Amino acid sequence: MKSPMKKFTIAVTGDFGALRTHEKIRQWVENNGGTFALNISPDVTHLVCSKEHYKRSVTMGMVQKFFGLRNFNLIKRSDHLSLAVQQARKIKSIKIVTFDWLEDSLMASSPERATEYLLKRQVKLAAKHKIKQKKAKKEKLSDGG
Predict the structure, then answer these.
(1) Which of 3, 137, 24 is nearest to 12 (CA)?
(2) How high is the pLDDT of residue 79?
(3) What is the pLDDT at residue 139?
(4) What is the C-alpha to C-alpha distance for residues 108 and 48, in angstroms, rounded to an integer?
(5) For 65, which of 23, 119, 130, 140 is 20 to 30 Å away at the CA?
(6) Which residues of the chain have pLDDT under 50?
(7) If we measure between CA atoms, which residue out of 75, 56, 55 comes closest to residue 65?
(8) Residue 132, pLDDT score
(9) Which contiguous run of DSSP H or E holds residue 28?
């Protein structure tokens, strides 16, 4: 059996729907040879992140909450708890990607190139698209459309 995640240590943050829980993602990663991380560290290769969490930079403490760890309250109160996305951005080797990267990699039984799935790139492209739409709408209105 192939192990497409063999070289990767993956952390997650965000909501990916009822069928894509953090626990389910952990199982998929580990069953495909990867390591699942509960915290951001230099060992993490990819942070699978929802667009909402990328934009809001939600705390990694939410991961502990999803797994029901008892020390969540201590972590939540900590003044030193950094945000998952901010932590990952500080470690240049971590790729912050969409869930689609993980899903496509697992479906292909081979890791996909992360470039197309980087959230920084996708958010930037979405913003450019939104600006173009607004500009086109303005032009249409000014033309009497």
Answers:
(1) 24
(2) 27
(3) 80
(4) 17
(5) 119
(6) 58-59, 61, 69-82
(7) 75
(8) 83
(9) helix 22-31
